[in-house]
Each structure stands twice: as C-alpha cells, then as structure tokens.
C-alpha cells in the first residue's frame, strides 16, 4: 500500500524524530496487531495463546521390561500402579485397595456442583468482561470522537485567527505599498526640484562672470551684484537642503521596503500555515493519505506561543504603521520644503531682476546725462575755438595801431632842436603805445587761458566719451547679456509662481 506524501512533509524539520510506518507498525500501535492475515477479523484471546509441544516420553510401569526403557532417559520411568496386576498381593488385598481409590457419590455430586458453580462464575465474569469491554469501547469511541471534534474546533479557531491576522497584514501591506509609491513620487519631485535649481544657479554665476567684464569706474559693487551673490548663496543653500531631504527620503524608502518585506514574509508564512491547517481541518477517518508517524507526539517543533505569535504580527503591523507615519510626515516636509525653495528662489530671482532693471535705468539716465554733457562740451569746445580765433584776430588787429603809434613816435623823434617838445601829442602817443601793449598782453594772457581751457575741454570730452563707452558696455552687459539670460524663469514645472 503506497502512502501519500502530506503537503507539510517537505517542510517539516522532524525527519529524525518521527518514524513513518508502512504496513503493520513495528514499535507503536501493538494493540491493533492481529496474527491473522486479514486485518478485519477480530483478535480473540485464544488466538494469542501458542501451545509449545513437549518432548515425547514413554510412560511405563515397573512391570515393563527394562529392555524396553529408552536409553536416553535421565530419570526413572513413571510408575502407575495397576489395580489388577500392579500389586503383589492376594486378591483380597487388591479388592480392598480398589475400594479405597473410588470417590463417594457425595464427592461426585459436590464435584459437579462445584463445576457448575465455577462455570456460572466464569460465565458471569465473562459477561461482565463483555459488558465492560462494550462500555469501554463506547467510552473510548466517544472520547476519541470528542477529542477529534475538539481538535477540529481548535483548528477552526486557529484558521479564523490566521485569516484575521492575514487580512490585517494584507490591508497594512496595501497601505504601505501605496505610501511607498507616493513617497517614490515625492522623491522624484525632490530630484526634479534639485535638478531645476541648476539652471538658475548657472545663470546667476554667468551674470556674475559677465559683470566682471565691466571696466574702470563701472566695476561697482552695486545692488545688482549683492542680489546676485545673495541669489547664488540661496540656491546653494536650497540645493543642500534638498540633498539632505533626498537622503532622508532614500533612507525612509529603504525602511519602508524592509517593513514591506517583513509583512510579505509574514503573509507568506500565514498563507502556508492556513493551507496546512485547512487541510488538517478537512481530514477525517476516511481521508486518503493518513498514516502512522512514530514518535511524532514526542517531538515539539513549536517556536512560539499564541501570545508571541499574535504579538509578532502586531509588532510588524505597528512597525509598518510607524514607517507609514514617518513617510507621510516626510512627504509633508518635502512638499513644504519644495514650496519654500520655490518661493525663495523666485523671490531672489525677482529681486535680482528688479535690481537689474533699476541699475539699467540708472545707467540709462547716467548715459543720457553723459551724452548731454558731451554735447555741451563739444559745443563749448567749438565756442572756445571760435573765441580763440577771435582773440588771435584781436591780437593781430592791434598790430597796425601799434605800428602807427610807434611810427608817429619815431617820426617825431626826428624833430629838430627845441621842437623836441614833450607836448600832449607826445604824451598821448606814449600812452597809446602803452595802452596797446597792455591790451596785447591782456589778449595774450586771455588767449593762453582760452587755449588751456580748450585743452581741458578736449580732455573732458575724451573722459566723457570714455565714460560713455564704459556705460554703454556696462549697460550692454546688464541689459543684453545678463537680462537676456534672465528674461524667462528657467523652471516651469516644479517651481510654481
């Protein structure tokens, strides 16, 4: 008869302590053995008795010839006296001995009564034994049935408990998987936010680099540069915060995955135990595959009690709930941090753009004023040049009057004798020459002053032109290069504004 392998036989660890019995059991279940080849025939008392035959020995008496006695006898042959020929007596003695060997009628009657009483007693005892056996069989059958029903009820309760905890674990596992999926989405959002901080940082650094191309007086540590430095520091600080948050999310995802593995492992064990207990609950006396397993009741493979068993599942559920709470809090922190980073980055971006606009307005105004001053300076240079020409012409115009006056004086110096009079004409001519000389000297000084001022105006014009060029370059850097990079915000998905 081939015995079916039970579904738990491949997972049990009691192979060395249990003995599977095939056929009649060798060491257990001896009460069910029968010497008959047919197991359905009952075992009777007389069937268990084995009669051992004795050695055959000849029974002889003293009248038997010694030659007929067996030579291998170790004792004297048994002698049975014969009532007729066994005694060497006369017939009287033999008759007398025969009378003495008979039982009396009373003894015969008493013997019969005793035999009847013994038979009644044995029959009564046998009937009692039979009734007790029937009662014992009924009691054992009832006890066995009751034990089997109680074991089935306990298995049913156990199946209910396992099903309850399996459902609880399954529900918690579904919640944990959903929370892990949400946390994974949050991790992607944080990574996206961290990546989205690179373009603003690169733009801010590019703006600082371009502004280093300003020259001379335009290298001003103005509000724009301060705003750019603040923006760079803010972006780097936000990157650091997001990196730390990303590390926390990664660690929390690992913890959630560990809790998920613990729940899945517990659910798998409970599914296996539920299958085994369900199969055990369905077994009955007529099920296939039932068999003897010697010594299985002495082997204790259990590693937990009902309290520790339910406590283990409860601990795993509580651990999963704790991880879900941490994950939910971390998602809330991540969302708050992303919004705060978005607001901070946008504020710094807007402040820097406003600073660029204000600085561009100031530079445009300064450029306009510079152009106005340059125009005025150029006009003044033109006027000074005209004035210089007029002064030179005025100096040249004093040449002929000087010649006339000096010619008059030289001609009058040739008057003869007493005619060399210091008259009013002579005094007036001398005064006229002195006056013309003073006027020429004054005109020369004014001409020198005008020429010096002309040179100063030319220098001022050069400075104005140089400053105008510097301002145009700085304005081009701020308005075209920098603001050209900052006209549109480089982040549109994560950073909401």
Automatic annotation (TrEMBL):
The keyword rRNA-binding does not apply. Transmembrane segments: none annotated. Residues 166-193, 440-467 form a coiled coil. It is found in: Cytoplasm, Cytoskeleton, Cilium axoneme. The keyword Coiled coil applies. Residues 1-38, 305-324 are annotated as: Disordered. Belongs to the tektin family. This is Tektin.
């Amino acid at each position: 008869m081939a015995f079916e392998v039970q579904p738990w036989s491949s997972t049990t660890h009691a192979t060395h302590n249990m003995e599977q019995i095939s056929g009649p059991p060798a060491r257990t279940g001896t009460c069910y053995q029968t010497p008959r080849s047919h197991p359905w025939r009952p075992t009777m008392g007389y069937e268990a008795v084995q009669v051992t035959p004795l050695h055959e020995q000849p029974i002889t008496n003293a009248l038997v010839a010694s030659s007929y006695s067996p030579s291998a006898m170790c004792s004297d042959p048994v002698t049975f006296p014969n009532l007729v020929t066994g005694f060497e007596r006369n017939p009287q003695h033999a008759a007398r001995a025969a009378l003495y060997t008979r039982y009396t009628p009373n003894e015969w009657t008493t013997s019969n009564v005793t035999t009847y009483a013994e038979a009644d007693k044995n029959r009564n005892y046998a009937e009692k034994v039979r009734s007790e056996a029937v009662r014992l069989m009924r009691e054992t059958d009832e006890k066995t049935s009751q034990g089997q029903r109680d074991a089935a009820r306990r298995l049913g309760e156990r199946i209910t408990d396992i099903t309850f905890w399996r459902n609880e674990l399954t529900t918690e596992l579904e919640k944990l998987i959903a929370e892990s999926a949400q946390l994974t989405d949050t991790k992607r959002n944080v990574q996206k936010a961290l990546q989205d901080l690179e373009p603003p940082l690169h733009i801010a650094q590019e703006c600082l680099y371009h502004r280093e191309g300003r020259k001379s007086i335009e290298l001003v540590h103005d509000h724009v540069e301060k705003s750019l430095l603040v923006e760079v520091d803010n972006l780097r600080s936000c990157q650091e915060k997001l990196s730390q948050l990303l590390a926390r999310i990664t660690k929390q995802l690992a913890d959630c995955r560990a809790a998920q593995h613990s729940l899945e492992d517990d659910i798998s064990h409970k599914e296996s135990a539920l299958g085994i207990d369900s199969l055990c609950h369905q077994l009955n006396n007529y099920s296939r595959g039932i068999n003897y397993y010697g010594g299985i009741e002495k082997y204790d493979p259990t590693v937990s009690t009902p309290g520790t068993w339910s406590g283990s599942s409860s601990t795993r559920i509580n651990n999963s709930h704790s991880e879900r709470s941490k994950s939910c809090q971390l998602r809330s922190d991540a969302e708050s941090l992303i919004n705060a980073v978005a607001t901070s980055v946008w504020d710094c971006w807007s402040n820097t753009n406003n600073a660029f606009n204000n600085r561009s307005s100031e530079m445009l105004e300064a450029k306009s004023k510079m152009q106005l001053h340059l125009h005025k300076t150029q006009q003044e240079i033109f006027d000074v040049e005209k004035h210089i020409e007029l002064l030179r012409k005025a100096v040249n115009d004093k040449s002929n009057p000087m010649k006339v006056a000096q010619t008059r004086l030289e001609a009058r110096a040739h008057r003869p004798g007493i005619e060399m009079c210091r008259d009013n004409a002579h005094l007036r001519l001398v005064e006229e020459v002195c006056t013309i000389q003073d006027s020429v000297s004054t005109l020369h000084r004014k001409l020198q002053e005008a020429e010096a001022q002309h040179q100063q105006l030319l220098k001022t014009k050069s400075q104005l032109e140089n400053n105008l060029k510097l301002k145009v370059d700085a304005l081009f850097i701020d308005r075209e290069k920098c603001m050209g990079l900052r006209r549109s915000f480089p982040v549109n998905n994560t950073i909401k504004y």
